[in-house]
Amino acid sequence: MNAKKGEWVKIYRVILKPEERAPQVPDDTKLVPLEMWVKGFITADAELGDIVEVKTITGRMESGKLVEINPTYTHSFGNFVPELLQIGLDLKEILFGGDSVER
Amino acid sequence: MKDNSYNAVMSRKNEIMKNAIGIDYSTFENEGISFEYERMMRETGYTLEEMQKIQGETGVGNTPIFELRNMTALARKYSEPGKGARIFIKDEGGNPSGSFKARRAANAVYHAKKLGYKGVIAATSGNYGAAVASQAAMQGLKCIIVQETYDSKGMGQPEIVEKARKCEAYGAEVMQLSVGPELFYEFLLLLEETGYFNASLYTPFGIAGVETLGYELSMQMREKYGKDPDVVVCTNAGGGNLTGTARGLIKAGATDTQVVAASVDLSGLHMASDSQFNRKSFTTGHTGFGIPFSTYPDRSDVPRSAARPMRYMDRYVTVTQGEVFYMTEALAQIEGLERGPAGNTALAAAFSIAREMDQDQMIIVQETEYTGAGKHIQPQLSFARDNGIEIFFGNPVDQVPGVNIILPKTPDLIKAIDLDMTKTRKSVVKNAINADQATRVNEQDIQFLVAETKTDRTFVTETLKELGIEF
């Protein structure tokens, strides 16, 4: 996929390589790099995977690998969790159900 | 060209911070381990009236208080005769950015603008980012939010991913990072590059911004119910919520009100661990922040944190992830209030504590937060399940953070667990000594530690003796 100059994109860059990580970092975290993602308007035509420059919404210049064009929010309400349904049913039974209505 | 290596940038920390906050913290330092907290708050903060005005101009504050009658009735079903206090909640989710954090951000951004900064930066994955972005939008400043979002597999907590969206909705730039405390390094680089204001959560203006919450709460309760609440429960992470609220209560004269901290128990999980990052289902309000920040507040991103919760805390309890998720669902199902989970940490604690209290007493949860895609019990539990966390009904005391989430089988199983306050207060003393590598303290230091621990001279001197510190 190609991005046209001026399009809104997401880029990726490694900030610290594993060997550059801070001394206080736990061992499992030391095995991986510190990575960064930021969005901006791309300054020239490019393909996914290219190293590109972007101008962020505050006007800063950032560079990194082009990973997404017109980046989309994909978070949601997740998969249905049946247990949640039970909570309401139980509480209504306790509060308002049976013969123990006190209100 | 400037050396931007990790060590070089960290060694410029104090200089960068001074330029980015406009406070010379060294002027409040005493000889020895102490500093002048109240003078710092007075000289660099705002008065209550000023804060109310600043917040009022951006629609922050004056949120309603609701009595949770069904929740109270439910608690009484599991209480001894005559027990079961009335439970209330302050609906802070009604603030412009959807949480009480708008109070902190309103002051920080106002202050930044007054000092002539062109923009603000905050390092936060939570509601504070949205609050700063919202305030920056209102006050015409640029805004960058730096958040810890993903693990090394590129997987992000739904709650944090949603927060990035919300910040962008207010026009902010969001920089997302993978797990690790070196976020602070990137944060410093950004401050240096842009010359923007550090809208830290821990500045005197930020904390003073929460004082309006405590003050307002007391006034509202007096007006409607004729007295102050007996207990206020605050969800505790970095300590600013509790500190600001308690200071506001004191300013209102509500000195008999007990201030209780509540955190979600995430014991055993390391906060900077890449592999454990997505095994937790709470990204804030948990013990991973709550305990270290309470016992050593100056670990924050400013030299002296204005959030010092142990100065005000009467009691500290933990609740479990399953209990908080359960109470969040209960709030929707029996009170008709659908709110985000984070603020309900205090609600789970309040439900338990209410059962110990008399029926004519009042307990209040001082915050709620907005909810929506990502920031909701459904996606958070779904995400947990996808990450191999077991979710089932049972007794929450059997929970293991990072392994399972136990929803209470019946409401009586919701139990706030007390942390040992003596031990926690001793940690405050120990950490203050260690931070300065002190071997001897003076009288001023002792008085400082008395205030820091909300104890007395005997407690502090006994603790110093145990630590082998001369005085």
Describe the protein in words.
The complex is a heterodimer of chains A (103) and B (471). Chain A is of the alpha+beta class. Chain A has a single domain (2-96), classed as SH3 type barrels (Roll). Chain A is 18% helix and 35% strand. Chain A is built from two helices and six strands. Chain A has helices spanning 27-30, 82-96; strands spanning 2-3, 8-16, 34-42, 46-47, 51-55, 61-69. Chain A has a four-stranded antiparallel barrel. In chain A, a hairpin with a 5-residue loop joins strand 5 (51-55) and strand 6 (61-69). The relative contact order of chain A is 0.21. The mean pLDDT of chain A is 94. By secondary structure, chain B is α/β, with parallel strands linked by helices. Chain B has three domains: 6-54 and 99-204, Rossmann fold (3-Layer(aba) Sandwich); 61-97 and 205-418, Rossmann fold (3-Layer(aba) Sandwich); 425-467, no CATH class. Helices cover 45% and strands 13% of the residues of chain B. Chain B has helices at residues 6-11, 13-21, 37-44, 48-57, 69-77, 101-114, 127-139, 158-169, 183-194, 204-225, 240-252, 287-295, 321-335, 344-354, 377-386, 421-436, 443-453, 457-467; strands spanning 65-67, 86-90, 119-123, 142-150, 173-178, 197-198, 231-235, 258-264, 315-319, 362-365, 390-394, 404-408, 417-418. In chain B, strands 1-2-10-7-8-9-13 form a seven-stranded mixed sheet, sandwiched between helices. A four-stranded parallel sheet of chain B has the order 5-4-3-6, sandwiched between helices. The longest helix of chain B has 22 residues, at 204-225. Chain B is globular and about 65 Å long. The mean pLDDT of chain B is 96. Chains A and B meet through strand 3 and helix 2 of A and helix 5, strand 4, helix 8, strand 5 and helix 9 of B. Strand 3 of chain A pairs antiparallel with strand 5 of chain B, so a sheet runs across the interface.
